[in-house]
Amino acid sequence: MAPVSSNPTTAIKLNDIGALAAFVREKPDMITFRTILDAYWSLGTENPFKADAYTTVLHDLELYPNMPSIPVPEFLNNRGTAPTETFATIFGNELFDWVTASLSEVRHDMDTEIAQENLFLIASMLSASAMKTGACFSSDQVSYIRDGLQMKVSDYIGFFAPEQYEVAAVGALIQVLSAGKRVLELKMIDEGDLRQSLEDIGEVIKCPTGETVLQAARELAQNDFKDSWASQDIWALLDEE
């Protein structure tokens, strides 16, 4: 039987950080990173309720000790040499690209049904877990909260079509439930503006499932955003059965 280190999908499922680290050490390059991230994204798409577990694995991998330095890809090397960078930096950048590209891709061909199969909501869940766990945090991800909730500092009219507003709002609410505490701690969004947007966005949410998610976010606000919802509990809100 092949060693676990040759199968990043199995390693992520088993939370086997050592196996993932060994996989990187066998061939520390961009192809290896993308193989790991492809496995992560496939698992997350199949099981969004496990998003927290999967992204925690990646965050732990970023922090794993004694990882090899990685040659900077040529297209990122503007110094005319062949420098190396820490594993955490290069892998973190790749994860950022993966998360934001996936959100952008599904936004352009967005399913407007509020359901667990909606790829935009799945991508929102994975992005939120990445922010909450510290695996990947960026202003690009936070912008999906601002635009989805149509905050006064956003450009949602140019970002989402009117028929996408409801799904965009629910995706933002998923991110608030999961990562809102961390977003506010890092002062990426003004808390007063977020509270107001949670009241105002009710105008675009029409379906009962969306209302359920909105109510959960409003209750979180009433508790001063002190908690972070687990991905399993968030995903259960989208179960219409």
UniProtKB/TrEMBL annotation:
It comes from the Eukaryota. This is Uncharacterized protein. It comes from Coprinellus micaceus (Glistening ink-cap mushroom).
